[in-house]
């Protein structure tokens, strides 16, 4: 083999090696970039999922809060109406005291109710300043009405000291140990507690 | 110098030339891989920094709209309830009075 042939052979081998080296490097480079792109897609997908998850949670929370606030608006309007109703009830009760039925029917009924509860034959009656004199003048007739209703004789004593109630009467045993509150104030409070469900039902009907 | 020595020298030069080619190829290969590594890092860096401000903005606007819609609906229900209820106040007050007074 001559020098030229040897030269050719050596350089061909070298070129072959060069191709190998460069091919390998290009393949490795391509693989590296492809892997980076794959990871990048994964990272972006993960981030997007996280952002969407966070947005969905925020949506759920904010809309739930909106519903709570909305229900509160409805609730406030309902109670505004209930307050209006009871305001009217107070006005009507106040003007009812000018009605004859107040002394002829209502007070005797309240006193009867109170004596039944206290189970005494002698009771003390306490009323407000405005009702005091009128009740004093009608005390005997009310005593008769109540005794007749109870089927036994009762004695009604009107306390000289008026009390601060809207209307109605507070009864006590003669020893002042037991009381029965038949005032408009107590009945109003009782009505508010017992009738609210009915009232709301009537409002929504 | 003898012919043999000349030929040996020539062969040595050829080997040197071949080694030089391979050395340059290796250097080029390193450069190729180095650039690929930088490119890969840049791709990953860009991914890490990716934001979704457009999606967030649109979704936020949707949430605000839905929220407002819910409030409007409840506001309407509350207002309707109130205006209808006003017409019933007197009758309900009379019902309560009847219960309190127990008067026919």
In short:
The complex is a heterodimer of chains A (205) and B (104). With 205 residues, chain A is α+β, with helices and mostly antiparallel strands.
Describe this structure in words.
By secondary structure, chain A is an alpha+beta fold. Chain A is built from four helices and four strands, in the order ααβαβββα. Chain A has a four-stranded mixed β-sheet. In chain A, helix 1 (3-96) crosses helix 4 and helix 2 packs across helix 3 (129-150). Chain A starts with a helix and ends with a helix. The model of chain A has no long low-confidence stretch (mean pLDDT 93). By secondary structure, chain B is an all-alpha fold. Helix content of chain B is 89%, strand content 0%. Chain B is built from three helices and no strands. Chain B has helices at residues 3-48, 53-86, 89-101. The relative contact order of chain B is 0.03. Chains A and B meet through helix 1, helix 2 and helix 4 of A and helix 1, helix 2 and helix 3 of B.
Topology:
The complex is a heterodimer of chains A (205) and B (104).
Chain A: H1 3-96, H2 100-118, E1 122-126, H3 129-150, E2 155-158, E3 168-173, E4 179-183, H4 184-204
Helix pairs in contact in A: 1-4, 2-3
Chain B: H1 3-48, H2 53-86, H3 89-101
- Taking all Cα atoms into account, the compactness measure Rg of chain A is 47 Å
* Uncertain runs of chain B: none
Average the pLDDT over all residues of chain B and give the rounded result.
Answer: 93
Number of helices of chain B: 3
Strand order in the largest sheet of chain A: 2-1-3-4
Q: How much of the residues of chain A is beta strand, in percent?
A: 5-15%
Unreliable spans of chain A are none
What is the 3D shape of chain B?
rod-shaped
Q: What overall form of chain A do the CA principal axes indicate?
A: rod-shaped
Q: What structural class is derived from the secondary structure elements of chain A?
A: alpha+beta
Q: Write down the overall mean pLDDT of chain A.
A: 93
Residues in helix, % of chain A? over 70%
Radius of gyration of chain B: 46 Å
Give the terminus-to-terminus CA distance of chain A.
Answer: 116 Å
Helicity of chain B, as a percent range: over 70%
Element string of chain B (H = helix, E = strand):
HHH
Q: Work out the helix count of chain A.
A: 4
The biggest beta sheet of chain A is recorded as: 4 strands, mixed
């Amino acid at each position: 083999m001559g020098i030229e042939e040897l030269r050719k052979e050596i350089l061909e081998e070298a070129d072959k090696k060069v191709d190998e080296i460069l091919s390998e490097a290009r393949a490795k480079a391509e693989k590296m970039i492809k892997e980076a792109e794959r990871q990048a897609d994964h990272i972006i997908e993960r981030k997007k999922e996280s952002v969407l998850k966070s947005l969905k949670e925020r949506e759920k929370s904010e809309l739930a809060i909106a519903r709570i606030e909305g229900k509160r608006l409805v609730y406030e309007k309902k109670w505004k109406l209930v307050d209006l109703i009871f305001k009217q009830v107070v006005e009507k009760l106040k003007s009812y005291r000018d009605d004859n039925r107040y002394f002829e029917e209502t007070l005797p009924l309240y006193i009867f109710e109170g004596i039944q509860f206290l189970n005494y034959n002698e009771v003390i009656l306490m009323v407000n300043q405005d009702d005091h004199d009128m009740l004093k003048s009608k005390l005997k007739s009310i005593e008769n009405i109540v005794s007749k209703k109870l089927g036994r004789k009762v004695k009604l004593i009107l306390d000289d000291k008026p009390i601060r109630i809207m209307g109605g009467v507070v009864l006590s045993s003669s020893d002042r140990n037991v009381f029965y509150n038949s005032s408009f104030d107590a009945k109003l409070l009782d009505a508010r507690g017992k009738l609210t469900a009915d009232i709301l039902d009537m409002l929504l009907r | 110098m003898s012919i043999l020595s000349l030929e040996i020298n020539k062969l040595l030069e050829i080997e040197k030339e071949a080694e030089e080619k391979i050395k340059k190829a290796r250097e080029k290969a390193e450069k190729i891989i180095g650039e690929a590594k930088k490119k890969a890092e840049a791709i990953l860096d860009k991914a890490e920094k990716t934001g979704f401000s457009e999606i967030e903005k649109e979704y936020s606007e949707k949430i605000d709209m839905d929220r407002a819609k819910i409030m409007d609906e409840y506001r309407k229900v509350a207002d309707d309830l109130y205006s209808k209820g006003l017409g019933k106040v007197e009758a309900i007050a009379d019902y309560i009075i009847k219960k309190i007074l127990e008067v026919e």
